[in-house]
Design goal:
Layout lengths: L22 H14 L3 H15 L5 E5 L5 H9 L6 E6 L2 H8 L10 E6 L10 E7 L7 H14 E12 L5 H17 L4 H11 L8 H11 L3 E8 L2 E7 L1
Parallel strand pairs: 1-2, 1-4, 2-3, 4-5
Antiparallel strand pairs: 5-7, 6-7
Helix pairs in contact: 2-3, 5-8
Bound molecules: ligand GEK.
Amino acid sequence: MINTTDRIFADIIQKPADFVFDERVASVFPDMVKRSIPGYPAIIDMIETLTSRYAQPGTNLYDLGCSLGAASFAMLNGLKQDNCKIIAIDSSLAMIEQCKRIPIKNSAPAAIEFYCDDVNNIDYHNASVIILNFTLQFIEPKLRDNLLIKLASAIKPGGILILSEKVKFDDKEVNDLLIDVYHAFKKANGYSDLEISQKRTALENVLKPETIETHLNRLLSAGFKTAEVWFQCFNFTSMIAIK
Ligand code: GEK
């Protein structure tokens, strides 16, 4: 039987390397996100609820950095509007190959198209809902403004972008405290001190968090009329921006 429990950092790693979304990560991903991202199930549930409210008939719904498609399937479950298409993109071939194997009922309200690509390379258009669920944090900071400008201009008036991110805080004491509290959450979910510290090292050059203020200002400058945090647990947040 295939083991789907995340033990990727359980043993001492002799030559530490940057974290990559390869086949090994894809095979344990549902366990990894559930034990590593506070509030992940609540955020996925809200993506379903917000999709039923904000999707517009005849538009595209994008899931950027879809991993195994949790947000895409949440959108599909929430969708009541006709003639929509869900477009899910991830730069990890291992993730996209697994997504393509997930069966979709004939009676589903829309199709999901999965593409293996960099989200910076896509032409976005006719969108009503765009999801960036813990993906922007992996994109080079200097590319983030342009991507958000592109996304904001692809969204129709009244449409939304949901941006979930691990964040940092300007105040060092608060920042250190929330990192410690987050590590306690991981320990309570069965990760050892070794796993926590080896993963932290692997993510150091790859996951680049920004402050909530930086994210909200970027969303407003990109062309959204409003942007607010709707969820926060420790240093993990989800924001909604409305065009
Ligand atoms: C979920 N949204 O379960 N272009 C496309 N994909 C990218 C890029 C890029 N430039 N950079 C990283 N990725 C998911 C969870 S995981 C979050 C998202 C996490 C992809 C990367 O391959 C990975 O699958 C995903 O973004 C981030 O709702 O693991 O913390």
